[in-house]
UniProtKB/TrEMBL annotation:
Natural source organism: Sinocyclocheilus anshuiensis
Quaternary assembly: Monomer. Interacts with GLOD4.
One matching Pfam family: NUDIX
GO molecular function terms listed in the Swiss-Prot or TrEMBL record: ADP-ribose diphosphatase activity
Full protein name: ADP-ribose pyrophosphatase, mitochondrial
Function of the molecule: Hydrolyzes ADP-ribose (ADPR) to AMP and ribose 5'-phosphate.
Name of encoding gene: LOC107690277
């Protein structure tokens, strides 16, 4: 087990700011207002800016040599007539092998879209989505690629992101204030994803039949505390410690579509991001972090606007920092 020390945080921070987002681009692109109506986790729901539609148009599809049909900003909207549109069809070999988590080809298989289909939730957080030739249409518009890509489900693929935070403190316990902003510095638990090497919130996919609150706690335990490898008695200890934090009123900072590079015209990522804050620093802050499952490394990282993180995760942190009146 790797002990958590506060000394290496600064060096990790420097290293992180050197990592660029592989699909980084401007904020242009057609996008629709993201609806957050009410929080599942707290009476307070925080509105954040809509998800851009930029990474979902990255030229080369992740994990492949497949190039998307280029979609300019003014052609993203499905309602803009574009007869020349000829998206590339791509479903990754891992998905074509029909693992349990993936849907088969549409045709003989015709799921109940826009509804709870058995234990698979095919409803979008953004409301009803359209179908074309029996396939769901990405609610944020054209991506230049049709099929499932790397995603298991046609339509929405639901994830959940637990943002676990604490105040950065010196060894005597006082909170650290940033020299520029004079505001207290927050730290969050970050993992380095094995699939793309980017730092991220330790989120993951909602399993069929699972409640989002369960996914949040399970993913955090698996990726940041390596609960899958722990002995039954250790696992019980870990669960006890974190259940308290995850049962506390989390702050929902996002719910909706994610501008993810894996998105296609017919399959896309959605997430619910919830902040669980260890105000006193003596709850989850004291648990030894250990990377597990899809995570290569895990660390407490200073929250700062210069971080480079996976998908929309930087925006989630910005919302958390502003809500908690922390340095950004
Ligand atoms: C990740 C989440 C992320 C979501 C959308 C999932 O695979 O585990 O952290 O928010 O994809 O990008």
């Amino acid at each position: 087990m790797k002990a958590v020390s506060r000394n290496w945080v600064a060096s990790v921070h420097v290293a992180l700011s050197l990592i660029g987002l592989p699909y980084a681009a401007g904020t242009s692109g057609v996008c629709r207002k993201n609806a957050i109506s009410r929080s599942l986790f707290s009476s307070k729901s925080v509105y954040m800016s809509p998800a851009a539609h930029v990474k979902a148009r990255c030229p080369v599809y992740p994990g492949s040599d497949t190039r998307r049909f280029p979609v300019p900003d003014d052609k993203v909207d499905w309602d803009t007539d574009w007869p020349q549109y000829s998206p590339v069809n791509y479903t990754a070999p891992t998905v074509l092998k029909k693992p349990v988590w993936a849907d088969p080809e549409i045709g003989p298989f015709s799921p109940q879209f826009n509804s709870l289909d058995g234990s698979v939730d095919r409803r979008s957080h953004e409301g009803s989505y359209r179908l074309q030739n029996g396939k769901p249409l990405n609610p944020h518009g054209r991506t230049g690629l049709e099929g499932q890509g790397l995603l298991g489900r046609w339509g929405p693929n639901h994830a959940a992101d637990p943002i676990v935070t604490r105040w950065k403190r010196v060894s005597t316990g006082q909170r650290v204030h940033h020299t520029n902003s004079q505001l207290p510095v927050l730290q969050f638990v970050s993992i380095k994803r094995l699939d793309c090497g980017e730092w991220a919130i330790p989120g993951g996919m909602v399993d069929p039949g699972e409640r989002i609150s369960q996914t949040l706690q399970r993913e955090f335990s698996e990726e940041a505390l390596n609960s899958l490898q722990a002995s039954p008695s250790e696992r019980e200890k870990i669960q006890k410690r974190i259940t308290e934090l995850f049962n506390s009123a989390g702050l929902q900072v996002y719910k909706g579509y994610v501008d993810d590079p894996r998105n296609t015209d017919n399959a896309w990522m959605e997430t619910v991001a919830v902040n669980f804050h260890d105000e006193s620093g003596n709850s989850v802050s004291e648990l030894p972090l250990q990377a597990g499952d899809d995570a290569g490394q895990v660390s407490w990282i200073d929250v700062d606007s210069s971080l480079a993180l996976y998908a929309n995760h930087l925006h989630f942190l910005e919302t958390v920092a502003k809500e908690r009146n922390a340095h950004w």
